[in-house]
Please model this.
Amino acid sequence: MVEHSDAELILLFRQGDEQAFTELVIKYQTPIYNLALRMTKNQSDAEEVCQNVFVKVFAKLDTYNPDYPFFSWLYRMAMNESINTVKQNRRIFRLDAEPAAAPAPPSFELADAIQDALMELPPEDRAMVILRHFQQMSYQEIAYVLNLPEKKIKAHLFTSRKTLKGILVRMGVTNEN
Amino acid sequence: MKTETKHHLLQRAVDGTLSDHEKPEWQALLQRDPELLKEFELQKEIVAALEGLPTVEAPAHLGDSILRAVKRQKAGRTIKRSFWSRRPVLDIKYIYSFSAGLALGLLLLLLVHSGLFTETSLQTSQLSGTLRTMDSGWQSKTISGAKIHGKISWKYQDAAMDVQLILKPQESADIVFDYARNHLQLRGIRNDAGAPLQGLHMDEGRLTLPVNSLCKLQLSFDRQSSDAAPVQLLIKKNNELFFTYQLD
Model:
């Protein structure tokens, strides 16, 4: 099977080849799912974010500006969708959640603890940390995805990492020094 | 050295983007400034932990469910477009729209004058609604009556069922959802109204919530089997039943 670049797949799709869209879904479903999962910490929310994102991509692919990399455009939609989901979920209380008064049990798996700590950051700051350190994006790409100035992103990332350290210390996962 | 310059170097050191020219300067700075060294170690530790987070495999069914959702969306768009796309001249569309608006306005005027819109209290037996299937897979029913009005919508999706209720009661009432626990397990409740949920009570397949103002709820269920999973909605006050409907 010939592997096409994003630009080729988009061109094929614009020419009416819907298989090209399926290839884009196959290529990007895992990174988008991971991004949404890190943002929401909920499997079904992450799946819903993925679905909504690709439905929007399908509807808007005609308007995509090829001056920007496709993945940045896709991540921009995914991040907006994830942030919206997170904000809506603030009004949710899960029936299987711990009662508010009871302290959450400490996470002993480092990855779980880091994910728990990430969830304590404001959604926009969490988005920056995920894009930078999980998706390995440059500041310029993050600026495009989140529509924020690079300077702000650098400053927020710096303080977010400090905050994360504080949370991990509080959780007993890491020492203060 | 200015704090700003120090911070700039720290940022670049954490990112691993210091130039060859900056590296010795940075090392010298670290030896002179233990606080800066501590900050650098902290930032490095967190970056390493974050970058060590594992990638999770997407669920096997995700690709299919995305393509199904896209197909549904596409079908909806085709229906919407087909009427308009048959008419190539834009001006004609405006004429159609204007004529339709004018006709609707005249009809409304006629109805108002004929007294058909006179407000009357409805009995429970007179409550009515329209059941329709929307493109997105949601079904809904309008709730209308003298003391309440709103809409209930529901959607089955794979192993889940979501129910949304928007209700504006004229006076306080109890919302009751009855569901078969061997078919459905309540996973979560989303409250989209401004006011917090108060007096929520859950008991053996029954959820009761007193309301006295605009209520916007979403209940999310996990389906235990693929069988029909009935949910009954009752809106009542003491023994007076305002509305009842079974979703299936």
In short: The interface with chain B takes residues 21-22, 25-26, 29-30, 33-34, 37-38, 43-44, 47, 50-52, 54-55, 58-59, 88-89, 91-96, 110-111, 114-115, 129, 133-134, 136, 154, 158, 161-162, 164-165, 168, 174, 177 of chain A (CB under 8 Å). Confidence is low (pLDDT under 50) at residues 93-108 of chain A. The longest strand of chain A covers residues 92-94. Residues 94 and 100 of chain A are 11 Å apart (CA to CA).
